[in-house]
Amino acid sequence: MSVLSHELKTPLNIFYSTIQLLEKTRRVNKEEFSKVYAKYSNSLKVNSKRMLRLINNIVDTTRIDTGEFRADFGNYEIVSLVEDIAMSTVAFAESKNISIEFDTNVEEHYIKCDPNMIEKIVLNLLSNSIKYAKYSKYGGIIKVDIIVEDKWIKILFEDNGIGIPIEMQDKIFDRFLRLDNSLRRLNEGSGIGLSIVKSMVEVHGGSISVNSVLNQGSVFEVKLPDVLIDNVPMNVYKFNENNTEVELSDIYS
User: Fold this and answer.
1) Lower CB count within 10 Å: N or C terminus of the chain?
2) Which helix (DSSP H) or strand (DSSP E) does residue 217 occupy?
3) DSSP letter, residue 89
4) Which of 108, 102, 152 is closest to 126 using CA atoms?
5) Rounded to whole angstroms, what are the CA distances from 14 to 10, 34, 252?
6) Residue of 47, 115, 42 lying closest to 82 (CA atoms)
7) Distances 7 to 50, 57, 180, 234 between C-alpha atoms, Å
8) Does domain 74-251 fall into CATH 3.30.565.10?
9) Nearest by Cα to 47 from 19, 6, 12
């Protein structure tokens, strides 16, 4: 809970300090107020999104704990969904000198899924990969790959970043996990994102795992059942790119 408390207090302290500064400059003159607002407005927006992301995660965690965590399933085209979400993060990754590559062994494929959950899964894992890859010694690269097999859809998130110690790999999806001090910078959020991702994948009847080598990189693998809902139309989901800004709000720093 101390981790969660810290994550709540950080943006709130920024809000409060900025409001105090704006109040002070407002009493001086409008020109000075405008300069101060222009300087700190982006910080306010980013931290508002960080707060919204944290609140969303807390709500999802509560729903998981109370047994109210349910998916709104339909038949959706998974390739374009994952590709569009991945491409929406390119600007964020480039701000950290990281490139994102997407590949697939099929051009189109429909599966039973909740597109809102898929969106959160992909964005959270990409945010996670960007945090790892930005410490790469060779230039950060993230590869997102979709592989359609006989019974499963695999979505791979590979980075060439700092990696995860082998003793932590079986705990990485635990709620509120923080790595040791030497690797704490990799887990800058509240430590509940990956646990929620795991729950969302499992609601789909799938699984998630990680394979990582310290100082070489990590691969997160999501496996989803290759099934459809009978007598339900096929849909193409269009996501809101504003959600990308919210989910990746903790990689600005």
Assistant:
1) N
2) strand 217-225
3) T
4) 102
5) 6, 18, 15
6) 115
7) 9, 12, 17, 40
8) yes
9) 12
Residue holding tokens 């790595």? 179
Residue with tokens 């509240």: 190
Question: Residue 27 CB: number of other CB atoms within 10 A?
Answer: 8
Distance CA 188, CA 67 (A): 28
Q: Is 72 exposed, middle or buried (0-12, 13-18, 19+ CB in 10 A)?
A: exposed
* Degrees, nearest 5: CA angle 197-145-173: 20
Question: In terms of pTM, does the model score above 0.90?
Answer: no
* Site of tokens 């959020």: 189
Q: What is the pLDDT tens value at each position of the chain, 253 positions in all?
A: 445 555 666 666 676 677 777 777 777 677 777 777 677 666 667 667 667 777 777 777 777 778 788 889 999 999 999 999 999 999 888 888 899 999 999 999 999 999 999 999 999 999 889 888 877 767 799 999 999 999 999 999 999 988 888 888 888 888 755 544 444 444 444 456 888 899 999 999 999 999 999 888 999 999 999 999 999 999 999 887 777 877 777 665 5
The domain segmentation of the chain, as residue ranges, is 2-65, 74-251
Would you tell me the crossing angle of helices 193-203 and 115-133 to the nearest 10 degrees? 140
